[in-house]
């Protein structure tokens, strides 16, 4: 059923600014699902996204998946060989985006701009476009930088931190509405950013298009990846970098290797720490651990459905409330969650996991004994895993429907 948004229908024009946007209509990401839903609801959707130098494509506008996509030629940002290359792209991209928007979108009257952190939320992009199109802008806040980088030692120079902090505040002040992933995020921003007292700050769960569970042959999928039906597979899917502190999961695998004969740990994804983690697993003689750098989306979803436990891991040094985006995928695919969390996330995400969604267990990061105890609770109890997995799926269907997110954004816009 079509829901009329904002008292309008096709007369509403929304510009989404995304770091990435897949051309494959079958792909499902947090950002793509949101823009797809706006289009489904009858909104005129425009996407502005990067076309990296390695793509060897000039800036161009095209119709993709039924709406307009402006791919702006920029430098390389993802999987760069050097930090200098990435930094150069960050500093040159705002000018390229603004120029492309004014050239290719000059005849469009936009009602709203929506973007996300990091880096495409730059004040140097948003302010010129807000003024040029004379419309409000909403930010989906996925990370709190530079505090998160300071916490885990990625930034160590105080003057550099202060520079980024000042830039962050100015960036946040560019928006009319800031959407946070959790209640803890909302409280943190309101408490620690008095400069934003006149800006609306609200919770917006990471959402996705509601889809049925993939109908798979569980035994066949497990055989494809080298597992038996008796194996208890704990899966980590996503970025493998410093923030995830996956050493804690390898320590868990080490304990499980001795005490749980069918325990298996599968890491799917890549990041700055992947090679180091693989070397560490070899050094620890972990024969129950496997790394797969990249999988097609369908294969990833199939092995996720065939797995038994979804893993979440955060560095214990964090002082900001993180809400891992992989939660939505785990819930969607009915996978109970085991999380290793810093104390700040434990109060927010941990509470959400155990008391609101009732879909998992957690332990404080660094407490290896407690993490193993929570793991063993799931490992040894099939009924508990099934119950928690079904609870997560139910929460996904009732609360994480992207249509609800779409309506919530538009209701605020209307108000």
Describe the protein in words.
By secondary structure, the chain is an alpha/beta fold. The chain folds into 2 domains: 13-208 and 401-414, Glycogen Phosphorylase B (Rossmann fold, 3-Layer(aba) Sandwich), CATH 3.40.50; 218-398, Glycogen Phosphorylase B (Rossmann fold, 3-Layer(aba) Sandwich). Helix content is 43%, strand content 18%. It contains 15 helices and 14 strands. It has helices spanning 30-40, 83-104, 123-133, 147-151, 158-172, 183-192, 218-224, 247-259, 274-283, 297-306, 326-332, 343-356, 368-379, 382-399, 402-414; strands at residues 13-17, 44-51, 60-64, 67-73, 112-116, 137-141, 177-180, 200-203, 232-237, 263-268, 289-292, 309-313, 337-341, 360-364. An 8-stranded mixed sheet has the order 3-4-2-1-5-6-7-8, with helices on both faces. α2 runs parallel beside α3 (123-133) and α7 packs across α10 (297-306). The two termini are 23 Å apart.
How is this structure best summarized?
With 415 residues, this protein is an alpha/beta fold.
CATH topology of the largest domain: Rossmann fold
Q: Count the domains.
A: 2
Structural class assignment: alpha/beta
Beta-strand content estimate:
15-25%
Supply the CATH architecture of the largest domain. 3-Layer(aba) Sandwich
Q: CATH class of the largest domain, please?
A: Alpha Beta
Shape: globular
What is the end-to-end distance?
23 Å
Count of DSSP H/I helices: 15
